[in-house]
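User: Before I run my own analysis I want an independent prediction to cross-check against. Here's the chain; please return only the structure tokens and, at the end, one sentence I can use as a sanity check.
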Amino acid sequence: MTEPVAAPDRPTVILGVGGGIAAYKACEVLRRLTESGHAVRVVPTDGALKFVGAATFEALSGQPVQTGVFEDVPSVPHVKLGQNADLVVVAPATANLIAKAAHGLADDLLTNTLLTARCPVLLVPAMHTEMWEHPATRANVALLRSRGVVVAEPASGRLTGKDTGKGRLPEPAEIVDLARLLLARPDALPRDLEGVHVAVSAGGTREPLDPVRYLGNRSSGRQGWALARVAAQRGARVTLVAAHTADLVTPAGVDVRRVGSALELRDAMHAVAATADVVVMAAAVADFRPVDLVEHKIKKTDRDPDPVALTRNPDILAELVAARRPGQVVVGFAAETGDASTSVLEYGRAKLKRKGCDWLVVNAVGDGRAFEVEDNAGWLLSADGAETPIPHGSKARLASAVWDAVAPSVER
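Assistant: Structure tokens:
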């Protein structure tokens, strides 16, 4: 039996691997998918097996590996694999594979699988910059996207040899994040933000007290990262202003600008917002900062140290709303905890009215929710009074719900 066998609640993923140097990263994509509960069948090209052996893919997937259509003929794998898949991911997708997929060529098991698949298909390109930018490749990518195939934006960075530029395969964690999103929502990555400049803030600010200590919060930056990643894959030009975050890899196709304190984030967001069509304030900005920065480390042995005097940080979201240009869309985030008299949602409604932004995403925090976790949930509130609950799921899924609402309101 050549097709992968999965339990009813275990999604079946075909992982195609093209013949590029980045094929080694497919091993990590495979490991992450299998460890998160997916049944994965690897379908490499002959070229891919020159970089990574079949035994590696078989050991990690627990499934046989073959490249041709004349192996195990009675089970017709060239048809069954595509028919039975919940998702097909090709990583790396070389220029040659993209050209074959665009023009319906089917000369091996992987290209036959692409023709028979009726599930979402995610192609993750990896090639030199000149190849990615060549008119033939750009035309092939546009053709595939017009048919509903998700062709991811490649990352920028080190390529083979001494070359650097756009065309690097995104990191495995990002590929798996996109795969999970498409399994949950096959329509989550339309190209509806092309021509739109998006500015996103992410992470938690750190307000220095002395050379060692700071006031901060528990934000990991993952939600802002997801918003930036999904926007870029939906075609936007994205600038991500990042305060302190967890050890997160720069999303493919995103320009990242690093900041530390609330005041630094304020300056950076005002600068980026001056040309942005959409501004998203997802960063967790400290409400207060120390009045004075102590130049030396405050010692335990110091007698009766002076109390730390605090001053209020500027309300960056309110400033961005006040400064917005006609047609610019501003989205805020509210991390809230309810109390005996007021619910999280009621606090969110009050904040939306107070801030005056177009949209507000309200998250309940605490008890392992929102901060420092992979998943999220909440409500999307609109200035016109609409309220949309966002069910618990990955942060990329929440990001896609936000962009679903925002994209139609952006002036082109």
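Sanity check: The chain has two domains: 12-184, 197-409.
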